[in-house]
Design goal:
Elements: H1 9-49, E1 64-73, E2 85-87, E3 90-94, E4 97-105, E5 130-132, E6 135-137, E7 145-151, E8 156-161, E9 170-175, E10 180-185, E11 208-214
Parallel strand pairs: 1-4, 3-11
Antiparallel strand pairs: 1-2, 4-9, 5-6, 5-9, 7-8, 10-11
C-alpha cells in the first residue's frame, strides 16, 4: 500500500506558525479599520455638535448660470430720505444654479465694523472671493466697509468697500440649492439709532431684501 510521505515535524511547525501569524495579522488589520471608522464618525459628530459645519457638496447638478444687477441707492422717490436701500429689493433666481451679482454702491463711505465681526470676510461664494473691478479680494479691513450683502440662511457674506467710485463694480458668484425664500441684508451699522442698527437696517424695502429661489 502506498503511503503519503510524512511531513517533517519542523515543516509542520512552520505551517502552523504561518497560519496563526496570518490570522493574527488579519485580526489586527480588521481592528484598525474599525477603529479608523469609529474615530472618523466621532470627530465628525463632535464638529457638528460644536457648530462647526462639515462642508457638504451640492448633490444637484448645476442647471443654469444667471447674472443679476443690484444697486445700493439713497433718496429714492417715495422712500425715506437718507436711508440706503438695495435696488431691486426682491431677487428671483432658479434653483440649482450659479448666480453672479454685479453690484454698484451709490452710498459710499466707511462705517467701522465691530471688533471680531465675521462679516468682514467673504464667505459662501465661488472661490470664497468677491471682485472689485475684476480684482479678487477675500476680506476687508474693519474700517473700510460701507455695507455687506449677507444671506445668513445660505452662509453667504460679501463685505462691500466704502472707498472708491460709484462706477465701481463689485461682483461675486454663489450657488443656489433647492427652492425656497431667503433674505439678504446688510450687517454693517449703516442705519439710524445710537449705534446704527435701526431704521433701514431692519426695514423691508431698504437694507433687508428677499431672494426667491424657484424650482
Amino acid at each position: 500500500m502506498n503511503q503519503l510521505p510524512a511531513t517533517h515535524p519542523r515543516h509542520r511547525g512552520t505551517r502552523t506558525f504561518s497560519f496563526w501569524a496570518f490570522l493574527y495579522i488579519g485580526l489586527m488589520v480588521g481592528l484598525l479599520f474599525c477603529a479608523a471608522i469609529s474615530f472618523g464618525t466621532y470627530f465628525t459628530l463632535k464638529a457638528i455638535t460644536k457648530g462647526n459645519l462639515v462642508p457638504v457638496a451640492h448633490a444637484a447638478q448645476i442647471e443654469r448660470h444667471v447674472h443679476l444687477n443690484l444697486n445700493i441707492v439713497i433718496n429714492q422717490p417715495g422712500k425715506q430720505q437718507d436711508w440706503p436701500a438695495y435696488s431691486p429689493n426682491n431677487l428671483v433666481v432658479p434653483a440649482n444654479s450659479l448666480v453672479t451679482i454685479n453690484l454698484h454702491d451709490y452710498d459710499l463711505g466707511n462705517t467701522a465694523m465691530p471688533k471680531n465681526t465675521p462679516f468682514a470676510i467673504v464667505q459662501g461664494t465661488v472661490g470664497k472671493v468677491a471682485y472689485l473691478n475684476g480684482h479678487a479680494y477675500s476680506a476687508l479691513a474693519l474700517d473700510k466697509i460701507a455695507h455687506t450683502f449677507t444671506i445668513q440662511q445660505l452662509n453667504i457674506n460679501v463685505p462691500l468697500p466704502g472707498d472708491g467710485k460709484e462706477s465701481d463694480i463689485i461682483s461675486f458668484t454663489f450657488q443656489t440649492g433647492k427652492a425656497g425664500t431667503y433674505y439678504f441684508r446688510c450687517f454693517d451699522p449703516c442705519g439710524t439709532g445710537a449705534i446704527g442698527w435701526q431704521g433701514p437696517m431692519v426695514t423691508r424695502g431698504y437694507m433687508l431684501g428677499t431672494l426667491s429661489v424657484q424650482g
